[in-house]
Amino acid sequence: MSGERRVAVCIVTHGSAADLPACLAAVGRQRLPPAELVVVDCASRDGSLEVARRHAPASVELKCEAATTNLGFTGGMNRALALSHAPMVLMLNADAVLDEGFLERAVHRMLSHRELRVGAVAGRLSRPASGGRPRLDACGMRLIPTWRHLDRGAGQVDRGQYATAERVFGATGAASLFRREALEDAAVDGDILLPELHTFREDAELCLRLRERGWEVLYEPSARAVHRRVNLPGRRRQMSVQINRQGVANRFLLRAYHQGPANLLLTLLPTLWRDALVVGYVLLGERTSLGAFGWLWRHRRRILDRRRKIQARRTVARWNLDRWFFRSRDAL
Fold first, then answer.
1. Among candidates 286, 285, 284, 278, which has minimal Cα distance to 254?
2. Which residues contact 80 (CB under 8 A, 6 or more apart)?
3. Distance (Å, rounded) from C-alpha 234 to C-alpha 238?
4. Are 152 and 99 in contact (CB under 8 A)?
C-alpha cells in the first residue's frame, strides 16, 4: 500500500459495547485495509474497551486508551488523532457499519483531484432498514441561512438521489475521511476538534475552519455505510440533558467563532427568527437547557479570544464560506 493511501480508523466510545462488534467487523472487511485502528473510550460502564479489544480485526494494528472522564467526541477524537500516524483519518462512530468498499472509494475520491485542496470526503450514509424502503441519513452536510447545518437527504426515502460525486459544505463525524494535513492545518491552539463543543455540532465547526483555510470537502456516493443515528431533532425529549444543553450552547458558539459582518446582514432575519424559537422553546419547554446561556456569558472572554485566533488564521475571502448558506452543492 502506498504511503499516501494509509488510513487510521479512529473511534470514540461511550457506552458503545452493543454497537462495536458490527462496527469493527466491517472495519476488518475493508477492501483497502486500514493501517491503524485507534479506540479511545470515554469512561464507559459497559465494558466498551474490552469489547473493542475482543472484536478488533487481528490484521490491523490496534491502539486503545481509556479516559477516566467523559471527554466527549471532541476530546476523545483529539486523543485518538494524537495516537495515530497515518496520512488519512476515518472518523467513525461506533454505531456506523461500513460497506466493504467504503475506504477504497473514499480514498480514491480524495486522491483523484490533484487540482483541488481536498481535506475531507463524506460518504453516503443510510439508516438501518426497519420495514419499508431504506432512508438516507447523510449525503454530506449543508448550511442554511438560519445557521443550521443539516445532513443532506436526512430522513428521505432512498430512491437513488444524491448519486453524483460533488463538492459539499461539510462532512459528518459519523463516518468521514479526512486528510491529516488538513486537520492539523485547521487546528487552533493545538486542538483539531474544539473541546468546548464536547459532543454536538463539532463536525460542522471543524468544516467551517477547514473551509476558512481553503480546504475542499467532497461527497462520494459509492462510499456507503449504515448509521444507527441516536440523536435526532425528533427525539430531543429522549436525549440527555447534557446533549440538549450542549446543542443550544454550540449553536451560538458556531456563530461567535465564524460569522462575519456581511453574513450577519445576509442571514439576520432567518437567524433572529430561529433564535427566538430556540430561546422560546428553552424557556417554555426545556428549562434544563437554560444553563447554556449562563455558560456562554461566563466564558465570553475565552470565546472572543478563540474567535480572534480562528479569524486571524483565515486564508480565503469570507464569501468562499458565505456562499454555502445559499447552495447545497457545487459540481466537480
1. 278
2. 10, 11, 12, 38, 39, 40, 65
3. 9
4. no
Pairwise CA distance, residues 139 & 162, whole Å: 7
Alpha helices in 1-94 (DSSP H): 20-28, 48-55, 72-83
Dig out the grid coordinates for 83 from the structure: 495516537
pLDDT value at 322 more than 70? yes
Q: What are phi and psi of 99, to 5 degrees?
A: -65, 150
Measured CA to CA, the distance from residue 98 to residue 120 in angstroms comes to 17
pTM above 0.90, yes or no: yes
Q: How far apart are CA 245 and CA 242, in angstroms?
A: 5
Kindly state the DSSP code that residue 283 receives in the 8-state scheme.
H
As given in the structure block, the three cell numbers for residue 199 are 459532543
pLDDT of residue 129: 84
* Cα–Cα dist 186/209, whole Å: 6
User: pLDDT tens, 253-294?
Assistant: 999 999 999 999 999 999 999 999 999 999 998 999 999 999
Expressed in angstroms, the distance from the first to the final Cα of the chain is 27
* Helix (DSSP H) and strand (DSSP E) numbers for the chain: 12, 13
As given in the structure block, the three cell numbers for residue 251 are 449553536
CA dist., res. 244 & res. 259, Å (int): 23
Helix axes 300-312, 241-258, angle to 10 degrees: 50
Q: Which of 212, 214, 141 is nearest to 171 (CA)?
A: 141
